[in-house]
């Protein structure tokens, strides 16, 4: 991946994981650039398909595009940082991220966002 594209992704994310909002500063794990739609699902290496991700979120997300909503059990899309607004789907309660919507709940569960 070109260095200019990597810098663009980092700047856009302001040094935070675009899934859990953990800041890179103070994190023990290196951050990675995630293909939101994985390459093996024909996702392209373009700004609109890239997100800055902490290693934990990226590891649990993998190539997944969907998961099961823990409340209804229905297959639901995961949070897409380029298409969805974080504050609409998530909120903080103390240090815990809470899914406000079916997409938020599903993403918190699949990515294990609140796992210690």
Automatic annotation (TrEMBL):
Top-level lineage group: Bacteria
Gene3D superfamilies to which the protein is assigned, alphabetical: 1.10.30.50
Alphabetical keyword list: Endonuclease, Hydrolase, Nuclease
GO molecular function, one term: nucleic acid binding
InterPro entries in the cross-refs: HNH, HNH_nuc, NA-targeting_endonuclease
Domain spans labelled HNH nuclease: 4-59
Name of the protein in question: HNH endonuclease
